[in-house]
Design brief:
Blueprint (H helix, E strand, L loop, with lengths): L4 E5 L5 E5 L8 E4 L3 E4 H6 L4 H4 L4 E3 L4 E4 L11 E2 L5 E6 L10 E6 L10 E2 L11 H6 L29 E2 L4
Parallel strand pairs: 7-10
Antiparallel strand pairs: 1-2, 3-9, 4-6, 5-6, 8-9, 8-11
Bound molecules: S-adenosylmethionine and zinc ion.
GO cellular component, one term: chromosome
GO molecular function, one term: metal ion binding
Subcellular location: Chromosome
């Protein structure tokens, strides 16, 4: 199926992803692809996310992280928003193989052509969310309800959705 989305410069940050055609509520828009790495591999690597506030990593499950720096697709350009029109959903492998879990970006409302796609990254860091870290991870989504940071309150644990889907957090 031809893609309904395209990556181009965004007013939020760097590149973003925009609808080329109407996208309907509930539609599965794109899979978040990248190289599968263990958490230990990511921790030992040099992505420097916590310090820079820039990440192409997506926490897949307790074992693996999707690193879209390598083998990433257009989904890696989707920005975070405090008033998103999409959400990240985890499709767990029926056989229980954590390597085969997948993440999809789905529309949570109808999206018009030209609108930028976004989802709440749901980022919580292992360390305390200090004022400084919230600033490093500053949010520029421009929504009325923008919290000013992409970091989420730590009490926001993973929520289970009806039908076995899970909202996913990014990193
Ligand atoms: C997966 S990338 C998204 C693509 C990014 N715009 C780019 O050009 O590289 C995620 C990074 O984009 C930036 N970003 C995404 N949403 C943002 C937002 N609402 N406000 C500020 N920066 C954002 C942050 O640096 C974040 O770590
Ligand atoms: Zn925001």
């Amino acid at each position: 199926m031809p893609s309904k989305i395209v990556a181009r410069r965004s007013e939020i940050h760097g590149n973003g992803v925009f609808a080329k055609e109407p996208i309907h509520k509930g539609e599965r828009v794109v899979q978040y692809k990248g190289k599968l790495k263990t958490h230990a591999e990511v921790d030992a690597g040099d992505t420097g996310d916590v310090d820079s506030g820039h990440t192409f990593l997506f926490t897949l499950n307790d074992e693996y992280v999707i690193d879209a720096n390598e083998r990433g697709n257009v989904a890696r350009w989707i920005n975070h928003s405090c008033k998103p029109n999409c959400e990240a959903v985890l499709d767990e492998d029926e056989g229980g193989d954590p390597r085969k879990d997948r993440v999809f970006i789905e529309a949570i409302r109808d999206i018009e052509p030209g609108e930028e796609l976004s989802y709440n990254y749901g980022i919580t860091l292992a360390e305390k969310h200090t004022k400084e870290l919230k600033q490093v991870w500053a949010c520029l989504c421009g929504a009325k309800n923008c919290t000013g940071t992409m970091l989420q309150p730590k009490k926001d644990k993973k929520k289970k959705k009806k039908g076995g889907k899970k909202r996913k957090k990014k990193a």
